[in-house]
Each structure stands twice: as C-alpha cells, then as structure tokens.
Amino acid sequence: VCLTCCPRDVMVKINQICHKNSVKFFTGDVFGYHGYMFADLGEHEFVEEKTKVAKVSPGVEDGPDTKKAKLDSSETTMVKKRVVFCQLKEALAVDWSGEKAKAALKRTTPDYFLLQ
Predict the structure, then answer these.
(1) Where does the signal peptide begin and end (predicted)?
(2) Residue 17, number of CB atoms within 10 A of its CB
(3) What is the pTM of this model?
C-alpha cells in the first residue's frame, strides 16, 4: 500500500491494518524542498553477499601491507539476514526528553519533524 497527501491519523490507521495483515506499507509527501518517506515492510528477509577475507601469512610478503587482510573477490558467501520494521505509530511516539533520545536527536534529520 502506498499513501501520499494523507492526514497523520489516516496514515497511522492504514499502517496498523497493513501491519496486522502482513501487507507492506509506504507513505510519503513533499513540502516544497522538504519531504519524508516511511516504510513498514513488517518482517523482511533478504540475502547479502559477503566477500571472504583471506589472511596473509607472515614472511610471505615484505612491506607495510603484509599485516593487512586482503580481500579475495573470487570467494563469496551468502548471508541470510532479517529486519523487523516498526509501525508508523511507534516511529512517531518517540519520547525526546530522555538521555538516549537526546543523543539520537543529533543524528535525526529535521525533516522527521515534518510529520509532527
């Protein structure tokens, strides 16, 4: 489900319905030069390709690069990962008065507060 140009209460209500029924939810809007986008994909599983790191044995090479691990691009492994997305209601209900939230406030873009 994709929503745009909707009031906050409508977005929250539709997101709750989508989350309950395991339906992916996207919402966003633009205000001049500023905008926002929110995605609730529920439980999302994906596979990520990782390059194996080959260890360099001491004494084989000389120079400063011998201590660094080298990437062998021919060997890769597939790693399965899982991400659990939060609902829009939870994302908007952050308490900004706590110490943990104050640290997060420095990393939060001002556009987050457009939804508020």
Answers:
(1) none
(2) 11
(3) 0.66
